[in-house]
Amino acid sequence: MIVLAIIAMGVISVRNLAIDLFPEIDLPIAVVATSYPDAAPQEVESLVSKPLEGGFKLD
């Protein structure tokens, strides 16, 4: 009975420990989607995305 009680306490402890190992984290993410109809991906990058990225200076 003592061995079963120790095993049961161990199982309960491991289940509670798993919650503490993986805290809920909200990472700050910003997404900007650019499009240019009927253009190749390289053109969208050079004509739209790069100028937009260069216009914003984040410290």
UniProtKB/TrEMBL annotation:
One of its GO terms (molecular function) is xenobiotic transmembrane transporter activity. It comes from the Bacteria. Transmembrane segments: none annotated. InterPro entries: Acrflvin-R. GO terms for cellular component: plasma membrane. It holds the Pfam family ACR_tran. This is RND multidrug efflux transporter.
